Amino acid sequence: MAGISWHYVLKFIITGDAAVGKSSLLVRLTDQRFLANPDPTLGVEFGSKLITIPEENKIVKLQCWDTAGTESFRSITRSYYRGAAGCLLVYDVTSRQSFQNARSWLADVRAHADPHLTCILVGNKVDLCTDDAARRQVSTEEAELWAQEEGLLFVEASAKSGVNVEDAFERACRDILEKIRKGVFDDDRSPGVKLSKPANSSLALDQAKGGSGQCCGT
Amino acid sequence: MEFLSQTYVALRGPTGAPQTPLETVTRLSDRLSPATLLADRRAAVLSLKGIARSHKQIVGEHALPGLLDIIQNDAEVDPDIGRAALECVHTLCDTLDTQYNLRDLGFVHTDRILENERTIHKLLALLADQDYHIRQCSCVLLTTILHNRAQQAQVYFLKAPVGPGPVVALLEESGDVITRDALRLLAALIRQSTEIQKILAFDGVFEKLFNIVTREGGLDAREHVEDALKCVDTLLRFNTSNQSYLRETGLPSLLCSLLYFNPNVQPDEGVPQEFALQFWNDSKTKCAALVLEAIGMLLGSKGTGLREGYAFTRLLIEMALASNAPTRLKVQCLRLLPANAAAMLPDMILTPYMPVPETNGEEWDRLEAATGIDALLELIMHGEYNGLDATRRFKEGMDLRGTAVAVFENFLREDRVKEAIVSGMLPPENSGLHARSPVTPLLFGLILPPSSPLDRANVVSFQFAAVLFAHLIRHAPQCKALARAIMPPSLAPMPPSGAAPSGGAFFVPADGGQAPPAEAEPEDQDEPQTLLQLLTEHLSLSFLSRSRAGLSEREQRECDRVICSYLSLLSQWLWEDPKAVREFLEAGGLGVLVEQLNQPSEVDVVIPGLCAFVLGLCYEFNREPGEITRETIHPILTRLGVDVLVGRMNRVRDDERIKVVGPDFWVLPCPTPQALNPTFIPMYENETEVWFDWAFVDFWKSNNYTVQRGLVADPNSASSSTVQSGEESVLVASLRDIIAKQAAEIEALQAKLKELSASSSTAAAVTTSSFDEERKALEASLEAERTKRSEVEKEQEDLLVLLDELSSKRARDKAAMREKGMDVSEDEGDDDEEEEE
Ligand SMILES: Nc1nc2c(ncn2[C@@H]2O[C@H](COP(=O)(O)OP(=O)(O)OP(=O)(O)O)[C@@H](O)[C@H]2O)c(=O)[nH]1
Ligand SMILES: [Mg+2]
Question: B732 and B717, same structural domain?
Fold first, then answer.
């Protein structure tokens, strides 16, 4: 294996009401695309991305599980909270309801996840408010205040324009790396954080084990 | 001992009088209640366990709730009672009993357990219990429940508060029994549940499974590896989310290492013998097949930049073409190879191997290095290991060659590749009138004269050569034009210098068969024949040997096979190629076909049908001035009877040899169709045979109709109106259908109208007005049908005009493009042919 391709693997979940743009944020992060008509997520979908955190000189592999916001999947998606190191809690800035529901999503996360999990509150679809300020139903100040009260990071973003999307994930990563540095995570203890080993050495086969035929080359 | 005496008391009753089983079970069940002392409860459970199998129904009916409570409340406290309760419930749920009604009881009891999620959740928690036996018994019971009623149990699993963690953790435990049971549980759990598959991936199940594989010693291990890899397969198979997960981990490189392949192999690096030559046995083959499947799924999964992409592709090619892997693994490798990988073949240098005779596969000779594409062609033309076993026509070997053809077809995606290959079959330029083409292995396979008796290995080689060559020229006018200039050398005893086929191996079949017939062409040596003329002549020769008296049925079938290959190749070549048609007709092709159609076989429908097809096709495309014109052929068609010919063509459709062929299925069991002669016995067990490939069947299906329509056309009619692509003729046919249906409807309406007007006149006095109305309505609908019909007719006309315009525009465009030196795609007009495609 030529060197280590990443230092940490971090497991992320993305959660929040249906149609707030969770999948769109992930697709924006991994593929730099925006889909106007994505299908609602069934259960969960996986996506991943390498993120470099220059100050720490670290490469982080983000493993993201994008969960369904639809109520009927809630019991399934809960199973993912337990193993995550980071969480994007998403609401839609043009939907008051989705912001209010963020409380119950957060409660769910708190109930099931590792207590050291880093959570960032993401107000999505800000692009809709730049043209038409009247569409905004959740003010930046209000969301920021709530985030502070709850000890969440906060950012407003748009999967459509791409603004702040990578930033949201990066901020969460930085926070986790800092926790790691402070020894909050006892490396392998938290299931959401893994120190990378050179991919091959831990699992490589003892090459001598299998027999190979003789050969009398001609 | 206390327990024994307790049981005894329970069974006999305090008074010593014998009890019925019901009484015993009721009594024991009563003792399960928490009010009873733990020791007594334990004794009761053990007794119940002892009789659960023989009194499954009674125990289930009376004791199951109590047992479940014990699992719920006591198992963690007292492993003995827990284990006994788990085992007892397991017996009650067992559906592997031989007795039918007992089996049903297993389902009944399982349903009782699944009335709520309580027990499933408890069992999952117990998977992480301190006590080994509790873990193991819970695992086994869960597995049985999942086997009986997967769906409900899976729903409960997904909602379990402990989550999937304990299942994953169980896979980390060492010990044969627990590993086996954990893998069984996992397999039952992930069956048909994408959600469970995903959550387990999230919880690291892939890592744990591959740990088991490596821990046990890789593919050579005897235990657990196959089960673990089967789970990997299920987790990936229909789960794109898991595929993207796995491809992003470090695990894909392990898939290479498991097969002793370097995941970081560079294009200029060779592949170690350790990979190419391995000891293979049944279980290792099964495991390797699963690893290959995983590789195939990762290669096919969406997403970009799979790090192992090159290594995977290389591994598949190397294993298929240059290893001692079992043949069926090689087939699998070629099947899994992505379509675009074929382009790598010419630049890849491989070292094929051959088994040393009499060493039972233990010693291998390294052959000369060859490019991937040469090795592939060699495989198609001669079979695995240079045709070592080709006469047997065993299924895997034939499948391997058939799959290799598909890879070759992918290689030919671009017209320029085809053209380059056909150009390579031409005589060297400026080398005079008598210049001959170099003998490439492909050309050699094509021009082998039909010997008698036919050589089994050579027949198959010829068939594959015909299929390959057809791939080169089908719908490729440029290639057809080039191919007409191929001048095969005569197969004299001494091949012209420098013209030996590469490797020369084809001359000496490894089975010790004779060298190819040395006799030269019966023709005048000075007048070189074109390939097309030669093929025509060989077709005629084949018919001749087919008609010889005293052929065994086996020999007849061999002849038929060869004839079918000639006819299918010729039909694809002559299609839309008037120059080739003329050459074929003038080389005696017309006579051959007419003779066959004059006295067709009574039994076989395929050959007469194909002869009719080729004849019709010649008539259709005979557009070049020459000795034999359409006017010459027309009276022959009339004499043979156009209807008869059409009938013959249509009967081909129902023949098994055509009917069962699909895109990936053309190596057929021998004999196909079985019904042709029930007494026919193949020469070898599991022998297979090839008749037609899918490309031909597809070609034939889409053009059969056009040829049939061409048959009825007047000799002077231009071909422009008749030549349509398959799709177009299907479209026209369906429009015709609609018109015919509507005409019938109109007729029916008219008849009804007549009837009504007749009856209305007799009953005029009574309800004239109502009849009148009805009549009006009918007339209106008749009118509507009429306009509809004329619309459809118009539509069809417009469509045809449009098609015509389009085709001529396309021809013009392409001509213009070609003038500008642009690459022009296949399936358009011949270089000097002005009409449409
Ligand atoms: N204007 C705008 N539309 C967005 C943005 N993000 C998502 N959308 C749209 O919002 C709709 C829902 O997006 P999804 O990404 O499917 O939402 P989700 O949260 O994944 O929904 P579920 O999977 O059902 O939970 C889609 O029509 C998106 O195109 C954004 O940033 N701006
Ligand atoms: Mg979604």
Answer: no
Domain count of chain A? 1
Tell me which ligand sits closest to the C-alpha of residue A36: 1
The answer to the question of residue B461 being in a domain is yes
Could you tell me if B754 and B781 lie in one domain? no
pLDDT band at A191 (very low <50, low <70, confident <90, very high): low
CB contact under 8 A, B164 and A48: no
Chain A contacts in chain B segment 140-169 (CB below 8 A): 158-159, 163-165
- Domain ends where: B401, B429, B451? B401
Q: Is residue B638 part of a domain?
A: yes
Q: Which of A18, A68, A25, A69 is nearest to A47 (CA)?
A: A25
Residue A81 lies in a domain: yes
Domain of A74: which CATH number? 3.40.50.300
Residue B711 to residue B702: CA distance in whole angstroms: 16
Query: Does B105 map to a domain?
Result: no
Distances (CA, A) of A167 to A141, A156, A213: 19, 10, 55
Residues of B in contact with A209 (CB under 8 A): 217-218, 220
Interface contact flag, A200 B263, Cβ < 8 Å? yes
The SS3 call for residue A67 is strand
Note the pTM of the prediction, 2 decimals.
0.80
The answer to the question of residue A160 being in a domain is yes
Taking only the tens place, the pLDDT of each residue in B712-765 is 888 887 764 345 555 565 666 667 667 777 777 777 777 777 766 665 544 444
Query: Within 10 A of B303 (CB to CB), how many other CB atoms are there?
Result: 15
Token pair 């821990």: residue: B215
Average pLDDT rounded to a whole number, residues A129-154: 94
Within a 10 A sphere around the Cβ of A175, how many other Cβ atoms? Answer: 16
**Ligand 1 cavity residues, CB under 6 Å:** A 18-24, 36-38, 40-41, 68-70, 124-125, 127-128, 158-160
**C-alpha distances out from residue B377 to B371, B404, B515, Å:** 10, 8, 20
pLDDT, greater one: B118 or A82? B118
Spatial CB neighbours of B455, under 8 Å, sequence gap ≥ 6: B509, B513, B514
Average model confidence (pLDDT) across chain B: 85
Question: Which positions of chain B have pLDDT values less than 70?
Answer: 1-18, 304, 492-526, 602, 675-677, 719-734, 736-737, 755-776, 797-812, 814, 816-818, 820-837
Domain limits for position B749: 724-763
Express each pLDDT in B759-788 by its tens digit. 554 444 444 455 556 666 777 777 777 777
Domain co-membership, B649 together with B734: no
Distance, CA of B201 to CA of B199 (rounded, Å) = 5
Nearest to B198 among A1, A44, A211 (CB): A44
Start-to-end CA span in chain A (Å)? 33
pLDDT digits (tens, 9 = 90+) for B192-240: 999 999 999 999 999 999 999 999 999 998 789 999 999 999 999 999 9
Segment A90-106, tens digit of pLDDT: 999 999 999 999 999 99
Pair B449, B360 in one domain: no
Whole-angstrom distance, CA of residue A14 vs CA of residue A122: 10
Report the amino acid identity of residue B511: D
Note whether B712 and B732 are same-domain residues.
Answer: no
Within a domain: residue A83? yes
Is the pLDDT at A199 greater than 50, yes or no? no
Instruction: Please provide residue B432's backbone torsions phi and psi, each rounded to the nearest 5 degrees.
Output: 90, 175
Same domain, B675 and B686: yes
* Element (DSSP H or E) covering residue A153: strand A153-156
At B750 the pLDDT is 77
ipTM higher than threshold 0.85: no
Number of domains forming the structure of chain B = 4
What gap in Å lies between CA A12 and CA A80, rounded to an integer?
A: 9
Stretch (H or E) spanning B378: helix B372-382
B230, part of any domain: no
Is A197 in contact with A189 (CB distance < 8 Å)? no
